[in-house]
Amino acid sequence: MSDEPRPSATTSAASAPPFASKVLENVLETVLQFITSPRDRNACSLVCRLWNRTESLTRQHLSVGNLYSVNPTRAVTRFPHIQSLTLKGLPHSASLWSVPPGWGPGFTAWAKALVAGSCAGTVKKLVLKRVTVSNSDLELIARRLPSFHGLTLIDCDGFGTPGLGSLVENCKQLRVLDLIKCHIEYDNKGAHVDWISKFPKNNNCLESLSFECVQYGVNLDSLESLITRSPNLYRLRLNPAISIGQFCRLLLWAPQLTHLGTGAFCTHGNDNEEMKVKDVAAVFGSMNKLISLSGLSYIKPELLPAILHVCMQLTTLDLSCTTISAEQLKPVIHHCHNLQIFWVLDTIGDEGLKAVAATCKDLQELRVFPLVLSVESEGYVSDQGLIHISEGCHKLRSVVYFCQLMTNAAVKAMSVNCPDLTIFRLYIMDCHRPDHSTGEPMDEGFGAIVMNCKKLRRLAVTGLLTDRAFELFGKYGKTIRTLSVGVGGNSDLALKYVLEGCHNLLKLEIRNSPFGDGGLLAGIGHFYNMRFVWINSCRITVRGCREVARRLPNMVVDMIGNGFGETSLLDDDELVEKLYMYRSLAGVRDDVPQFVQIL
Amino acid sequence: MITLISSDKRKFHVLEEVANQSLTIRDVIEDRRGRRRADRIILVTNINSKIPEKVIVYWLRHFLMPEEIAHASMSHKKAEKLKKWEAKFFDTDIDTLNDLILAADSLDIPSLFDGACEKVSDILKNRSAEEVGEISKIENEFTHEEEEEEIPSENAWVWRNEFA
């Protein structure tokens, strides 16, 4: 018999569980390590002090839906060991319907907090969406975050090639640099930096590089060298400055890619590099892991057969950067049986959509963008296209559709045939148009969507709408989190229905609607449950905004308009051109531009 | 063969190679190698008899392929089978899981420790703070000091994941 009991007891199993006791803190840490959803972690943080502290210390991923809603220093103090941070800035509509340049939201305060906090050593990844990022912000994070290796910027602006240059140069082990739909600024002297050449020669861990939105040509030799020394590269999205000949040369080195953006699918008028279909096809033929294809800008239709090799394997096809007709699309789409995500311009017409519906039975997401976004444009797709799609693609979860001619019957068919829709964004470009066959408002169609699609999260409505539609949204739209309204309703009642009925509404975006202070004030009891409200060109006055600010002290009421900026001068009756209201624990932001008045 | 004795004095005989999955036991055996037979008896005082049974069952299942697990070279089918078996093994009440965690911690069996902790985390998911506190038998000693008042509103306003 051993002389001492080994292993010895540490605590008694009969009392509190081990993860609750201070003796075995490692148990709590391990349990929390398996809890990743912010909701669950938030619950754990409220259990007791020990749990709160342990949860804070072990939170690895932080996602902030509005970067103005909290003080960045507070964020990194509470969560000192985060490895990745996602920040969102402007509301979607605000970027779509243009806020004045310089409005913000700036990343600078967050960048400074990140490098000053103890998370400076742990932060590896940043994802920023609709945020203004300066060149010096990029340099700061590259120089002062030693573990940093992944940056994704979506719809961001404020930076140019000098910032990219210092990022890739200073961040020695960069793995991910994805620039998606960003607006790249010219630097002061109008020159730009050859940023691709600044990747260190010993960086061989690049996994993803996307620069479709960087308009400048890049140094091809440096890019080729970078690709050849990056065996882990799985995503590469080139910009349209790269011609098809250059593309073929580069891609010979990267048959392992799973995600590819081709850049231009033409020769840029350089006769010396006349490409034959079989040469391009050979490049694609070697890419047997490819599942996502985008780009194909300025496509030369005779080169299209070159991609037929890979169509069978594709789950994502994004043709939204290229003009293509139904005739050109058909032979390609017939091979795309496995497509789940398809983005395209409306030039494919209703006929093109019919072909999609006939082949792509697994389609989950469809976006049809307009070639010309204009009130006058008749558009190339109509209610017929939507009907085809709804009849062929029952698995659809997400639809974005720009058109001019629409009917209630088509929208209703969509709701019946695709009940799993979580996102439905229908943009009738001339927002005042009724059902073009009956002349009725679009109320019944959109009403059917909220009634039949039980998982609907996001709804964007346009076209002629009366208060009736909003009544239906309030009554049935219990799962809606984001509602965008482009022209709608007859009165404040519409707004009241939505604010009082849609309990889960987080984000509300409205423009050109007849809503005034009465409608706004109907939301007083609900605004603290929402992330933001964005109202553009309605009938809200300064008086209404002042009332909201007075009654809800944690609501930041950001009014944007000419002549705004000096409080005392504003008349109560003045109309507020753009209104952005959001709840915030940080108070008023410190980067308020001239044309903004915050209450 | 070594003998484990639980807190309620029950004896469990188990092959040394099997029990070696406990790093604590392996060290003890190593320390006492060459000594009397009695030294091959190990008291585990913090564990009642229900738990050694479970631990030994766990050891036996894992004993067959410890190398493979370590090298992650297990065939897909085998791995799936083991996963299924573990899901069933850990499908038990929270008190048993707590005892398993204690046993795994003191006997130093990392995979058992992680597996039981993961199962506990599953039980805590999709619950309110109050429910988590109840399951964990924790008194919430939060006062209403200023800093602590910030936390719930921060959770709701800033860190909430709307798509959860």
UniProtKB/TrEMBL annotation, chain A:
Recorded superkingdom: Eukaryota
SUPFAM superfamilies to which the protein is assigned, alphabetical: RNI-like (SSF52047)
Pfam families according to UniProt: F-box_5
Residue ranges annotated for the COI1 F-box domain, each copy included: 21-61
Family matches, as CDD domains: F-box_AtTIR1-like
InterPro entries in the cross-refs: COI1_F-box, LRR_dom_sf
Record's protein name: COI1 F-box domain-containing protein
Organism, scientific name: Rhynchospora breviuscula
From TrEMBL, chain B:
Pathways per UniProt: Protein modification; protein ubiquitination
Single Gene Ontology BP annotation: jasmonic acid mediated signaling pathway
Sequence ranges assigned to domain SKP1 component POZ in this UniProt record: 1-60
Pfam families documented for this protein: Skp1, Skp1_POZ
Top-rank lineage group of the source organism: Eukaryota
Assigned keywords, A-Z: Ubl conjugation pathway
Family: Belongs to the SKP1 family.
Function in brief: Involved in ubiquitination and subsequent proteasomal degradation of target proteins. Together with CUL1, RBX1 and a F-box protein, it forms a SCF E3 ubiquitin ligase complex. The functional specificity of this complex depends on the type of F-box protein. In the SCF complex, it serves as an adapter that links the F-box protein to CUL1.
Assembly description: Part of a SCF (SKP1-cullin-F-box) protein ligase complex.
Protein name: SKP1-like protein
Organism name: Rhynchospora breviuscula
